[in-house]
Amino acid sequence: MNAARGIAGLLALSVLATGCSVGGEEKKDPPQSAPSTSAASDASGTLDWKACDGSFQCASLDVPLDYDKPDGEQITLALVRRPADNPDQRVGSLLVNPGGPGGSGIDLAENKQFPKDIQQRMDVVGFDPRGVGKSSPLDCHSHLQEMYDADPTPATPAERAAYLKVSKAYVGECARKEKDVLPHLGTLNVARDMDRIREALGEKKLSYLGYSYGTSIGQMYAQLFPTRIRTMVLDGVVNTELTGLQGADEQADGFYQALQAYLADCESDSSCVLGADPRGQLEKLVAAAEEEPIPAPQADRPATPGVVQLAIGVALYSKDSWPVLSQAIDEGLKGDASRLVLMADSYLSRKPDGTYGNGFDIYFAVSCLDSAWPRSPAKVFGNARATGAKDPLVGEGLVNDYVRCALWPTPPQPLPKLTAHGSPPIVVISTTRDPATPYASGVKVAERLPKGVLLTNDGDGHTVYAQGKACVDDAVTRYLVEGKPPKNGLECG
């Protein structure tokens, strides 16, 4: 269960709840000044905006596939803009990213209700990163469903062989169909794309809001172009300096803590359908799926152990989803796993026609590039067993998911150490019981940034800004609009 897929999972699950540097990169800029509170640009830019999707405007921008060959092959990025409601008080554009890798910034800009001051005084601009959605998308996921139906905790040589077989089929398709593109999809190139977007928007400085994996993009933008930042908010922070297995282990700890919080909440809530022993009920469900897939009359397949793992994980992203998980566990124990399958499909971004989006294609393409991974599947399996011993029910399967990176055809390109010298204050939001991006990651990133401002959200769930928590929303909105950061160490209970 990966941080990168959190926003898409949350959006889909809301329906279920009601329905069943590199140094030297940057050119020299003038000395950094305080963020402007007046108009940041004339908004002219070079993009050809056209009306689309109701009240929005759409445009496209060509960027180099390979920045070492800027005049070589180009790829097209898709963008959308919600113009400021009050153009006379406009302070610039706010570029947004929901996470992933694989999340659509276009979907975020069109569907997210941002605070009133943001909508009045900033153009909200979303883009699909390279390889995602409408931006020259990858397409190599015909084996996705069978890969995630497979048992994520293989206990025997035969089970491990089956898990590897379907993983190799998935990776092999990506290698065959996308081999020329895969080396150029890492986060450093996405950050370079963002600077091209900033320039095309006509903005002298970038205002940016990144959730989850979007915080990795923000960190790398700060590393490459620190003096081109006006304001930047990182919410649900990824620690970009961990190896792949270190990050997976830390993420497993986060999900296990979230699972503990869910089980404690259910145990203390008399309305929880799982009764006094929710852990025992969940363990029975997992064991039943391991014994034999559980029938799902309202779905197209039964609930395998892989389906159960996905359903648990997607529900842990948001406390609002906990009752849905309890209901799904109860129904599964009674022999109907339909809701569990629907939850898993929401995580896989299944479409009404039964096909799947390409979020996982880009997820592995980026994740396997951005971090150092072992090239031995056996090492991943060994680490997964160790993680599962300390984080039962979620840890082993989460780490095993990354066996795909041990098989990936493009060698890793680990991200550089974060220094970001010359940047203005950057606000880092970290939630104490975030399952996907643990609180400690945000603390570490805020400390690494030369002017990091830590905002602690004492709560559950993955990311928090613009979700109605006034303490967070007021402080962050003021910073984005006026350029005035909150006090470092602010805690929102």
Can you give a write-up of this model?
There is one protein chain. By secondary structure, the chain is of the alpha/beta class. It is 43% helix and 13% strand. The protein has 18 helices and ten strands. It has helices spanning 6-18, 105-111, 116-121, 144-149, 157-178, 187-201, 213-224, 244-268, 278-291, 305-315, 322-333, 338-347, 359-370, 377-390, 395-400, 403-407, 439-448, 470-482, and strands at residues 50-52, 56-64, 74-82, 92-97, 122-127, 206-211, 229-235, 426-433, 452-460, 490-492. The protein is globular. The relative contact order is 0.16. Residues 1-42 have low confidence and may be disordered.
How would you briefly describe this protein structure?
The protein has 493 residues and is α/β, with parallel strands linked by helices. It has helices spanning 6-18, 105-111, 116-121, 144-149, 157-178, 187-201, 213-224, 244-268, 278-291, 305-315, 322-333, 338-347, 359-370, 377-390, 395-400, 403-407, 439-448, 470-482; strands at 50-52, 56-64, 74-82, 92-97, 122-127, 206-211, 229-235, 426-433, 452-460, 490-492. A ten-stranded mixed beta sheet has the order 1-2-3-5-4-6-7-8-9-10, with helices on both faces.
